[in-house]
Structure of Leucine-rich repeat-containing protein 57:
Amino acid sequence: MGNSLKHHLENAQKTGVLQLCSKNLTEIPNDLFKMIKVLRTLDLSDNKLVVLPSNIGQFLQLKHLTLSKNRLKELPNEIGNLKKLENVYLNDNNLTCLPSNMSMLKHLRIISLSNNKLTSFPIVLLHLPHIEVVDLSRNKICSIPDESKEFQVIELNLNQNQVSFMSEDIVSWPRVKILRLEENCLTLATIPVSILRDSQVSLLALDGNLFEMKEFHDKEGYEAARAKTLYMEKYDTHKYDYD
């Protein structure tokens, strides 16, 4: 893709934005590393990347990184060096976990990990001070963990997982507004009353769990939730544009 890559790199040198989507890439071209002082946005979605090299950590100016629709099984620890990173999109890969060094991404606001192979909630996300949107939909996560009291998320999407346990720590999440748990394995008994009564959640999506929504209306705490305008939706048209 010689001339095409050269053209993209020339434009990126001026704009700080490089898009190499759907190029059948199996590795990151070496010429990209001539841009480490320039790139603010890098989009490598819809390729065939299996490995993300450790020198991805050299792109110190990067704010927006898109790697959706590849074949990544893991991320290098060096991704934690991208201190200016604000948005990262990793949908439709084969990730099973996240590296601990992602806790260093103090400016990260949005992370999207839909349709990967995560079986547990990535604990590293709980400690990011400016995180706003976390999309973990379409994985195999079984629980929202304890020890999450300081989670700064505003919207958390866990639709289409295997969640059967919700920590009461959700009550302490200081900024949460939207909690999506559709098509999971929750029973009425596993939804803490305190979350309905005392949390900051204003939109709770629970359709498709192990109970009928009309049963949920009789649950203790439901009336208190309605009194504080908690909205349990069945169909929702709101979505963040992650890609």
